Amino acid sequence: MRLLLFGHMTVWVELDGVCFVTDPWFGPHGRLERWLAPRTIPPAVHSAALSRVGAILASHHHLDHLDRFSLTLARLLGWRVIGSEAVAARARRTGVREAIALRPGQSAALGPLRVEAVPAEHPLAADAIGFLVRGSRTLYFSGDTRATAAVTGAISHPIDVALVQAACAHYPFLGDDGMSLPEAAALLRAVRPRWSVPLHLHCSGKWLDRRTGLRIRSDNAAAVRAALGEWLGRLADEGLHGRLLEPGELVDVED
Ligand SMILES: [Zn+2]
Ligand SMILES: [Zn+2]
């Protein structure tokens, strides 16, 4: 399995000869998107990798997980779109020929791979899902979710690589709307993948840890990196190996 982080939660994955991108966000494009989702660094799009993509796997329809530009690419380049119901509906409206909606428990074929939807708990996107991609290796992609028993219980073992949300928004009445570092660690302890990657780290305002007050901003990359390094170190002490991907860096995941 090869991974290439374009940024935030957009990961190019090559598994068993099939290439796809998760939660594609190539923007923001325009002032409204910039205001809604202030990106801390531009996406590191790798054109050679992009030219091999055959599908988008999108967990939900929020702007930082599926933008109009990615759906336009899907329409023009004939990519298949697999995702939540809102994702598939949006893809069809854009003119994407093959848009597949999945609910937890349902699955779709992607060449030799099996793409299975697993539960996600994301109050601001009720139809959000996570993915298990099964081939010669098994990949878990969390999307935006809480680490509830229903979510972790539905993830069958063993997972080779887990791509997990590690920073989230927080609202006065709703609380956290996803996983920050402590909750992502709880999910990893429950799922015990052989290898994990923290994601959702390139949108300003997301909380990494509310207890320490650490929040992603455009000017605190060093503090964020240090906190992620510590977090990965603590998990490694528990036998849970992880890696921080640098945007644009191609990584071969070995056994
Ligand atoms: Zn979301
Ligand atoms: Zn998000």
Could you say what the CATH topology is called?
A: Metallo-beta-lactamase, Chain A
**Uncertain runs:** none
Shape: globular
| Approximate helicity band | 10-25%
Structural class: alpha/beta
Topology, number of strands: 17
| Global Rg | 17 Å
The domain tally reads 1
**Secondary structure tally, helices:** 7
- Average pLDDT, rounded to a whole number, is 95
CATH class (first level) name: Alpha Beta
Strand neighbour order, sheet with most strands: 6-5-4-3-2-1-17
Write the layout of secondary structure elements.
Blueprint: E1 2-7, E2 10-15, E3 18-22, H1 31-36, H2 47-50, E4 55-58, H3 68-77, E5 80-83, H4 85-94, E6 99-101, E7 107-110, E8 113-119, E9 129-134, E10 138-141, H5 149-153, E11 161-165, E12 170-171, E13 175-176, H6 181-191, E14 195-199, E15 207-209, E16 214-215, H7 221-237, E17 250-252
Parallel strand pairs: 3-4, 4-5, 5-6, 10-11, 11-14
Antiparallel strand pairs: 1-2, 1-17, 2-3, 7-8, 8-9, 9-10, 12-13, 15-16
Bound molecules: zinc ion (2 copies).
The site of one zinc ion has 7 residues, from loops.
